[in-house]
Amino acid sequence: MSTATHDATHGHGHGDAHGHDHDHAHDHKPTGAMRWIGSTNHKDIGTMYLWFSFTMFLVGGVMALIIRAELFQPGLQIVKPEFFNSMTTYHGLIMVFGAIMPAFVGFANWLIPMQIGAPDMAFPRMNNLSFWLLPPAAMLLVAAQFAPGGGAGVGWTMYAPLTTQAGPAMDLTIFAVHVLGMSSIMGSINIITTILNMRAPGMTLMKMPLFCWTWLITAYLLVASMPVLAGAVTMTLTDRHFGTNFFNAAGGGDPVLYQHIFWFFGHPEVYIIAIPAFGVISQIIPAFSRKPLFGYASMVYATASIAILSFLVWAHHMYTVGMPVETQLYFMYATTLIAIPTGVKVFNWVATMWKGSLTFETPMLFALGFLFLFSLGGFTGLVLSITPVDVQIHDTYYVVAHFHYVMVAGALFSAFGGIYFWLPKWTGRMYDETLGKWHFWLSLIFFNVTFFVQHFLGLAGMPRRVPDYALQFAEFNAISSVGAFGFGLSQLLFLYIVIKCITSGEKAQDRQWEGADSLEWTHLPSPPPYHSFVTPPALDAKGAHAGH
Amino acid sequence: MADDTQGDNRLAKKTSLFQAVKMVLSAFIGIRKQGQQQELNVTPVQVVITGIICAVLFVFTVITVVRLVLGK
């Protein structure tokens, strides 16, 4: 049996490699721009998602640098307060909806079909539409800056009554959020259908790599939560233009209602970003520990549990709006309790490394950076979950520091690790390991220079979303701004590393990381053929395994 | 897939409700006994239903604790 499987595997791999040699002769794919505009290929669409998200990462990053440049010194030097408010708003919206979420959808497009042995996504044309909705939405967000009155300075949370009073830019922003939501929902339906219906024979759910599991769970979260956001911004739109009073107290509405609806979406959104990041980390750490993931099944169930519980804690974002003490206590207890499964996941990753044969290539460095800094972000989250503490530091830089540890050192580091991990597979070429390590250490150091000091600023009482501040905050703000520019410039090194890898990197092996055991490494050449797994791969009982 | 489902159903009969609840609760905390494998015999539908029921129970438990703390 094992010999036959081995032969089949070998034959298949050879066939693919052969097919790849003649890829251009046999694949009648359009060339030039039409290949990308009309693409239904999961690899092309994944590539577009990743480049799109990196572009938006740079746009959102420039906005962050405008914020930090203004905050370098107290007083108003560089931008007007209205423009500053607009920058904080669109930095948040672009980074969350334009950079991080599409980056992980890009990973999903590239990897899920290959990891489950499917030829493509279930709905390739809808996949194309999911992607091509993103650039118009991004253009709306950027165009909002040029609307009469400038961008809407309402914060990424788009709270009423600011939004009901904002200028025309708000309408562009609302429409952009609608379009981004449609894209996410279609992408999620595609991912769910692909995973549930297109697995190769023998690839049972509990044999899938954990990355596929985390995306399956995330896709359900998206389908459940994005319509809530769409509802919130639609109500804002009708309040603005069609005479409704959902959030208008003068008309019998309630602005706090908006906050409840928004955070009922917003808290699961945190997990929508974090859970695929967990999936990437769960692929990288076992590969560089040369050990299977510790507690695969419990990781799957813990991830599903976190997803369910994420809908039960939303009002910990709103302790200061004037809720009854009973409600505050409920959300405080619930929030502190759901930190436990997340904490245990960290222990699972550490246990995976325990007594492993560790090496520290760039993907592993980013995974370890994730573990350390995401845990720090988790701890500050626990601090914030305590109602009386949060009442003191709500809307201060402590909160800004907290969620940047989760979003940047958590999700972004995980995405960087994933890109270094799979770049040899995607491009067939190896990145420059030395430069990769430089990128990691520069990012790690400058990230902490930027955001660690913001904890002190917050504890000392500096409010967020202000262009000017009192003199006692000057030193830490100057340090933070220097760190931010260092972090921003370090990402140009990342762009250089990726371009260098694509154009002149050394030839990568089919299984570049010997500890990586999912199908894209064991059954496909590097780079994989344009159409992989046209016939399902032959899997033995062990070959399909990622977890045991 | 069809074969898988039938196999799962046969195994599911062996799985008591207690096992499913135990599995979901251990997943809520995120830990399990070393070498614990019975969770593989539970179908996804069982997990989802048990999980949602346990989540509802979790909410009411926390609310009860809050009421006790406040002396209501």
Summarize the structure.
The complex is a heterodimer of chains A (548) and B (72). By secondary structure, chain A is mostly helical. In chain A, 69% of the residues lie in helices and 1% in strands.
Gross morphology of chain B is elongated
Number of strands of chain A: 2
Assess the beta-strand content of chain B as a share of residues: under 5%
> Please, what is the average pLDDT of chain B?
71
The rounded distance between the terminal residues' Cα atoms of chain B is 52 Å
The ordered H/E elements of chain B are: HHH
Q: What tags apply to this protein structure?
A:
heterodimer; A: 548 residues; mainly alpha; two-stranded antiparallel sheet; 19 helices; disordered N terminus; B: 72 residues; elongated
Q: How is the topology of this model organized?
A:
The complex is a heterodimer of chains A (548) and B (72).
Chain A: H1 2-21, H2 23-26, H3 33-37, H4 42-70, H5 81-116, H6 124-132, H7 134-143, H8 162-165, H9 169-197, H10 210-241, H11 255-289, H12 296-309, H13 325-353, H14 362-385, H15 387-393, H16 397-427, E1 429-430, H17 433-459, H18 474-504, E2 506-507, H19 519-522
Chain B: H1 2-14, H2 17-29, H3 44-70
Helix pairs in contact in B: 2-3
